[in-house]
Design a protein that fits this description.
single chain, alpha+beta, SH3 type barrels, Fumarylacetoacetate hydrolase, domain 2, 5-stranded antiparallel beta sheet, 26% strand
Length: 429
């Protein structure tokens, strides 16, 4: 598929650092608050944020059928609902406007002052109003590791795992953009040898390295989405830190699965990278171990080569990279996840978010959670400042990054960066 905005030879008249995640071939979408306290939809090239609402009002999208207020909103939901044809046309026009050879905006000082912002002049917001959020459990390495720890190593995977993309319905109200801190959660835990559960702060707060995809309006109630059509309804991806409280999780997990251990916070990177931008980085996923039912069978390159890393930064110290892995390791791909999610007729809406599940690779340094990296705390990780971590300490900052690179072109997601604060203490009235 030839997408003009992805032309690897294209250069921008805006400055772009060599190792930037945001060259002109990326053109992600996000929502930000401007220096004038106006919320707008925008994009980013290099370290310059671009106000798409202003661009539209100045006539730069003439010829593309867009409503007058499509970019003057506090979420991308309506734009996403317009569908892939619109997304592709807008990305292509932005690529043309900021192409080095195009002098229309380049030489218009007045328009540039209205449209362009330094990153320190904006405040990123949650890019979509998330109506529903589903979290999958689709890494075979992660599922095997967890099953080995808590069950029989010879039967680490539950009987259904190789047949369906396992998932659960999460809580959208606690999904937050990068930069907003998270408080250590409290809840019930049950200590080994105890007679009764106790209530208090979680002692085993963990990150889960995930990606999340965002959907558009897809289907009516009762209408499944075929696996071969699923990508038509996927707008793009973000980095996703699905915070977890492992001790609370252990107590509440049976029989209905995650609840308080998962719903206290999930952090995302603020720029949505479109599926179109990721097109050059397609790869095949793992081969099925067992035959899959026809509605889940798909051919071709349905996964993406996205290099991922996680770092932990203690307060006042340098960060330590604790994990390097790749999105391509996921056993169940996004098309299969969406097809399975809707096979019973469940409707999908614009702005819905689907977490991939923890992304773990085949080696110990590629695991996507502290639960695995430290093997339940039995193998602590040493930080650059000399301290050790079994799980996440108060005032630690967890940083996740991701990018694709091929033939000299790099497309990235920036980072999702979140500090863990102590337990919330209500202010005295």
């Amino acid at each position: 598929m030839l997408i003009s905005a992805n032309n690897p030879d294209r250069k921008s008249w805006l400055h772009v650092d060599k190792n930037s995640d945001f060259p002109i071939q990326n053109i992600p979408f996000g929502v930000f608050l401007t220096r004038d306290d106006i919320i707008t939809i925008g994009t980013r090239i290099g370290d310059t944020a671009i106000d798409l609402g202003a661009l539209h009002q100045l006539g730069y999208f003439d010829g593309i059928p867009l409503t007058d207020d499509i970019f003057l909103q506090d979420s991308l939901n309506d734009f996403i609902a317009d569908g892939r044809k619109t997304w592709r046309a807008v990305r292509s026009r932005i690529a043309e406007i900021f192409d080095y050879e195009n002098e229309t905006l380049k030489n218009n000082k007045q328009h540039k002052e209205i449209v362009l912002f330094r990153l320190d002049e904006i405040e990123m917001q949650l890019p979509v109003q998330i109506g529903d959020y589903t979290d999958f459990y689709s890494s075979i390495e992660h599922a095997t590791n967890v099953g080995t720890m808590f069950r029989d190593p010879n039967n680490a995977l539950l009987p259904n795992w190789l047949h369906i993309p396992v998932g659960y319905h999460g809580r959208s109200s606690s999904i937050i953009p990068s930069g907003i801190p998270v408080h250590r959660p409290q809840g019930q835990t049950f200590s080994e040898g105890a007679q009764e559960p106790t209530f208090g702060p979680s002692r085993l707060v963990d990150f889960e390295l995930e990606m999340a995809f965002i959907t558009t309006d897809a289907n009516d109630l009762g209408e499944p989405i075929p696996v071969k059509e699923a990508e038509e309804y996927i707008f793009g991806l973000v980095l996703f830190n699905d915070w977890s409280a492992r001790d609370i999780q252990k107590w509440e997990y049976v029989p209905l699965g995650p609840f308080l251990s998962k719903n206290f916070a999930s952090s995302i990177s603020p720029w949505i990278v479109t599926l179109d931008a990721l097109e050059p980085y397609r790869v095949e996923g793992p081969k099925p171990i067992k035959p899959q039912l026809p509605y889940l069978q798909c051919k071709g390159k349905k996964s993406f080569d996205i290099q991922l890393e996680v770092a932990i930064q203690p307060k006042g110290a340098k960060e330590t990279v604790v994990s390097n892995t790749n999105f391509k390791y996921m056993y169940w791909n996004m098309s299969q996840q969406l097809a399975h999610h809707t096979v019973n007729g469940c409707p999908i809406n614009s702005g819905d978010m689907m977490g991939s599940g923890t992304i773990s690779g085949p080696t110990p340094d590629s695991y996507g959670s502290m639960l695995e990296l430290t093997w339940r705390g039995e193998k602590p990780i040493k930080m650059k400042d000399g301290t050790e971590r079994k799980f996440i300490n108060d005032l630690d900052t967890v940083i996740m990054r991701g990018h694709c690179e091929k033939d000299g072109t790099r497309i990235g997601f920036g980072e999702v960066k979140t500090q863990l604060l102590p337990v919330y203490i209500p202010k005295k009235k």
